[in-house]
Design brief:
The protein is an alpha+beta fold and 218 residues long. It contains four helices and 14 strands. The strands form three sheets. It has an eight-stranded antiparallel β-sheet with strand order 9-5-6-7-11-3-2-13, with no helix packed on it. Strands 1-14-12 form a three-stranded antiparallel β-sheet, with no helix packed on it. The longest helix has 17 residues. It is elongated, with a radius of gyration of 18 Å. The chain starts with a helix and ends with a strand.
Length: 218
């Protein structure tokens, strides 16, 4: 586990620092050269970069069996899936779309142990399309709760997002709401939980990572 990122105390994710520093440097050069238009343009881009990589601290007091949203964004769908899914048993799939305006730091939905992490290269369709779930580059995190319930979280790259960061590793013990990764720039997350779970969200609803309860394990 990369504790420097999981326990980040900076106002922005560390993955964003190179972009922010570069933006500041380029803006400073344009200011020095008195190129007003370009200095304003790069200044705006740098400010947006800071905004995109923001990483606010969040606390939760969720019940032990509560499943929290792993990402900020809007619920795309909540569907029942047969055995043909990452859980290998009847499951509920909750899909969350993150626009470029959402916080992009991902958080653990429920405490447990990381059993497996599988990265799959793929395409880069727009993350709000159904086919993105099947064909896009993704990173699959499989975890098990203390009650031996299996949960799967899938980070999915989008049309613009071309970099998936995952800061945890197999065997790590993780806690509800802790940071575990990031995707840039605009993407999708999917959560698979057991089919008998209670669902607390619906399509179109806005959620916040590590805060919004999307369901309860039974």
């Amino acid at each position: 586990m990369d504790n420097s990122r999981v326990n980040n105390e900076w106002p922005v994710a560390k993955e964003g620092l190179p972009f922010i520093i570069l933006g500041c440097a380029v803006t400073a050069v344009f200011i020095y050269l008195h190129w007003s238009f370009f200095s304003v343009l790069t200044g705006i881009i740098t400010l947006f970069t800071v905004f995109f990589f923001r990483d606010p601290s969040r606390n939760n007091e969720a019940d032990e069996n509560a499943v929290l949203a792993p990402a900020d964004g809007a619920i795309l769908e909540v569907v029942d899936i047969s055995d043909d899914n990452p859980l290998e048993e009847p499951a509920k799939k909750i899909s969350i779309f993150m626009s470029v305006f959402n916080v992009h730091v991902n958080r653990v939905p429920i405490s447990g142990t990381i059993k497996n992490i599988v990265y799959n290269p793929g395409r880069f369709f727009s993350a709000n399309l159904d086919k993105a779930s099947h064909y896009n580059e993704n990173n699959r995190v499989i975890m098990e709760t203390s009650g031996l319930k299996k949960i799967v979280v899938i980070q999915i790259a989008g049309l613009i997002a071309r970099r998936i960061a995952c800061w945890i590793k197999e065997g790590d013990h993780v806690k509800t709401g802790q940071r575990f990764g990031l995707i840039r720039f605009g993407s999708r997350l999917e959560v698979y939980i057991p089919g008998n779970s209670q669902i607390n969200v619906k399509p179109g609803q806005k959620v916040r990572a590590g805060v919004t309860i999307i369901g309860y394990l039974q």
